[in-house]
Amino acid sequence: MESTLLLLVLLPFCAVGINIKNNACHSFGMYHLAAISSQCYYNPDILSTVPKMAERHDYNEETHSTTTDDGYILNVFRITSKNQKPTKSPVFVQHGIATNSGPWVDIGNRSIAFRLADEGYDVWLGNVRGSTYSNKHETLNVNTPKYWDFNLDTIAQKDITAQLQLVANQTGNAGDIIYIGHSMGTTLGFMHASENPGKEQGLIKGLIAFAPVVYLDGVAILELATPIGIPLLDILGLLQIKGLLYQEELIHRFLTGFCKNVSPGACLLLINVAFGRTVQFQAEDLLLYYSYWPSGISIYQLKQYLQIVRSKRFQKYDYGLTKNNRVYGQRKPPTYDLSKIDIPVRLFYGKSDSLYKQKNVDRLFDEIGSDNKEKYSTPSDVSGEDFDHIDFMYSKNMEENLYKKLFEVLDSDFGENSGSES
Questions:
Q1: Contact 101, 69 (CB under 8 A)
Q2: Coil, helix or strand for 91?
């Protein structure tokens, strides 16, 4: 009798097989049964690294290091096709806030880095200070508060410049680099381009912004957070807690375990609340996302964004009246002059993005000085399926939803038309 009952219990498991390594499922509800569900499988890219993922998907990868003039050691990954040498411009791709370059390669042949390489571009993936791949310094330790004494201005001035110069030196293509940024990567790109205008000064020949973050007027989640967030960040600073989320390995292992074994629904809800409701995000990408987010960040990056929300200006970091006078020679921090940007610019925005407001996109577009600029609602041809903030990295159909238009823009070398809107 006992053996019969045991057989009945084990029979379903024997029928489908058991694989405790399974970590990706085709539906969110199956994660609780991942080990035995036929809808689940093992994805080695979860909790992997950029070099390993590039090798696994049969692409060339080189890791290059550069050191900023204030001692931060940054790693930049070069991705090229094994089937052909790069025949087109270098493309520098910069990640968003509290993440790293992992999401540019973690969804297999849908990944932007691999698709760019397939099209003949020389792809370089940036990693700013404090993030997973760039958390070293010549003299400072990531566990010390002084390491985290930087803001968005510092990163745009020092990290972006150092990484672009590295690309120019390695490729011999100074002034010929195409910059692609997502979220904070766009903020940094606009800061850098406005401070380094002109073909002789600049290192980039064009800027593509996915989910641009410059003006944040009327963004409810941030306007609610600002009155509480700024004082809280000030308190953390007084307590010498200046770096957040930089214990990435521990955090990512916990989150991927929680999302698989405890509540995949809660993990999806967090994405929808933080970034906008998505209909593009696939269940099998859930643990991939939490393998690379969050990553280390300074409290001053967060505070500067909240200052931009409060001031309604695209401004430099506000140190307060006394230090502003000392640093800037004026009481208020200066704004970035977007009218100085004279390179081609393309804005790709999603109307389901929690940070999206049409008036902010229009204001950014109008203030960019270049005559060669365009903006696109993404995707432009799929009714009712507008992108949210992370769909630019994880949409289920990247080819039709994003890449078709992206490569049209890239292959036309930013074209000759200006000022049109799709």
A1: no
A2: strand
